[in-house]
Amino acid sequence: MVGWNVEHRSANYRGGRRPVGRFPERFIRSSGLVRVILANDPALARETLGRAIAVLRPGSEVLSVAPEQLEAALAEYSPHLVVCSRASELLERCATRWVILHPDGAADSVLGVHGVWRVIDDLPLGAVVELLDQAASDAGERRPPAPAVSAEGAARFRPPD
Amino acid sequence: MCAMIRLLLVDDHVSFREPLAFMLDLEHDIAVVGQAGTLLEARPLLPLADIGIFDLDLPDGNGADLIADFRRVQPRGAALVLTASGGRLDLAHAVDAGAAAVLRKSVSFDVVLRTVRQLAAGEQVLQPEYRAELLEVARRRRAEGGDERQRLASLTPRERDVLRGLAAGLSDKEIALRLHIGRETVRTHLVNLMAKLDVNSRLQALVFALRHGAVDLD
What we know:
Chain A is α/β, with parallel strands linked by helices. Chain A has five helices and seven strands, in the order ββαβαβαβββαα. Chain A has helices spanning about 45-55, 70-75, 90-95, 125-140, 150-155; strands at about 10, 35-40, 60-65, 80-85, 95-100, 110-115, 115-120.
């Protein structure tokens, strides 16, 4: 049984109808499957960030939950990236990359990558994309090597002359 | 064919503003013509937009002042307030300055989208009774003298943050932790804000701020 209420999953987002708009085209490309939890406040910020990620990195799986459900979601979902507004004991154990946006109304935010914390002003959309790409790259490195292809198999996949 | 809605977005939190701008800009009938995080950045962009989305709590002042400027340079434009923490008096000042709609940041994206389109179509969005109520609050406050408002307006964003900490029942230490500043700095802000509000204790400062809608109790 799912232990938290999922507000949105990326598959449910209605993507935009215009592909690029006024934002850099380099954002618009697909990455590998990266799991993201969004538990930041306010709700509108969570929803629009989730929708934007679904457009910019369609390969990502975005789970949006209320801030008080972050711990339960962390324990069950094993995310690559978390964006939230409150610190959680599980955060560092369950995610390699996380951002706490303006905790308790603070002016600054905190970024954690592989256990290294850094105070940042805020989190621009471009930085989210960068974190997603880094997470995708990490996930790719951990993927088992591709199986060796037999001569017979290689022949089968040889492009036609 | 309908004309594009030219939209300006003013909010000091980039993490909130950019995804919202990105998603709005993807809509077939909306073009985000500008984004700004302060009054200073926003003022040159006001003539470019038909619809402005304004946060009220900006680092260099109150978004209501920006709404008044927007209405001056774009009399046919419409201002939508999108706020997380604005108290009733803040909303009253915003409506008094010409805001046509007020939304909390807890609403869904679809509600924002619908409201932007309603405003662009010239529809009335605020319930007339609510609008009248807010205008009455603003009028009464003016009648009581702008002195209190001026005193509140003289507070810096940091001093307002400290006031909000008081309203949340936090100690000096907890406020310092929340704002990533030292306890002494918190005390300095408290002394300064009490002087500006012309009150003698932090309790009086809190009551003053509550009475004038500068903070809400959670």
